[in-house]
Amino acid sequence: MRKAINRNYLVICLLILTQCSIAQSIEAKFRHKLDSVYKSNPESVGILIHVESPDKNISWSLGVGYADKNSKVATDKDQPALLASNTKTYVAVTILKLIEKKELELNQPIRDLISKKSKALFEKAGYDLQAISIKNLLSHTSGITDYVDDAYFDLVNTNPNHQWTRDEQIERSSRQPKPADGAGKKYHYSDINYLLLTEIIEGKTGEPFYSSIRKIIDFPKLKLESTWFINLENPPAYSKPLAHQYWGKYDWDSYHLNPSWDLFGGGGIVSTTKDLALFFQQLFEGKIINNRELLAKMSRFVLDKESSRYCLGLMNISFKGMTAYYHGGFWGTDVMYVPELNTTISVFTLQKDKRDLNAALSYEILKIIKSEN
Fold it and tell me: Basic and acidic residues bias: where (predicted)?
């Protein structure tokens, strides 16, 4: 009996060693590919990546290039950055958790859920808030005109230190021309939808939306230890300094802008590539939303896919012949979960003008993983 136990133990040890050896070989290929991409594109400033592929025993991060192009400080693989619109998925998941708890309904009208101030503004602007549902906000089919336009970017550029408020941004939206199409007719990506969703979260929880998101998603349980809302929450004591993120059009450096311009649910979260990938991976493993049907709705088309691939807080895309659940952010932050490979990849390119590298690099990483099957 003891010999049989010893043999089984040896077999298990050999299997573990083999898996570790395979994972190390794959990770070496990842490193080579990332180094090659960066060497060919040094104007990207810096690239941070995380690959979470549990079936391959891989949880791998790396950073190349610089976190600050002026001081030439090197990136750190655990460097956090502004996620911008990737924040929307966290807001959507929080809303869906409240639906799972039967505190909200997906098709519930927003009229009596948003703040009284917002309700008055949009009704005065001619919107039928009884016809706009939570689902419309989540899927960007509300028909509400956004406050973000070219003039808004010009305002931010002219007044980089301005302390924006959510009320100010909502009011700006209410003053924009109202479109002819009503709710549910067309897709139009709009930050205003997610600002209103954060008002709904606060109305239901009685707490600030950012602390509610942290509690409802349960960041500690998911080990999201480097994820927080900038300027609204304190960063972890051990957190690395934020990476600088750049945009050529206005010669922007994220450090030189008051982050309130993109803070209240349309953006606002700071995270590492690892935390972002873990969030997506655990979401689709059913570790956050327990109701499988509700989780499936997140990646189900709301309109026909030719009109919009945006679902509920993320996009269902075809990526090089594979289905992927995806979201991106203004500053060049992208994340996708590929169900076929049970793999999540998150990539931050710090010069947002070079964000096409994110898709190219993700594809090369996925090819490496597929070749090992």
Answer: 164-174
What range does the domain containing 98 cover? 2-371
> Residue 16 above 70 pLDDT?
no
Give the C-alpha separation, 59 to 344, whole Å.
10
C-alpha gyration radius of the chain: 22
The string of DSSP codes covering 103-132 is SS-TT-BSTTTS-HHHHHHHHHTT--TTS-
Alpha-carbon distance of 235 to 182, in angstroms, equals 41
The amino acid at residue 196 is L
Q: What is the DSSP letter of 373?
A: -
pTM: 0.94
Tell me, what CATH number does 169's domain have? 3.40.710.10
Q: How confident is the model at residue 24 (pLDDT cuts 50, 70, 90)?
A: confident
Distance CA 233, CA 229 (A): 5
pLDDT tens figures, 173-221: 999 999 878 899 999 999 999 999 999 999 999 999 999 999 999 999 9
Question: Structural domain tally of the chain?
Answer: 1
The pLDDT of 138-154, averaged and rounded, is 98
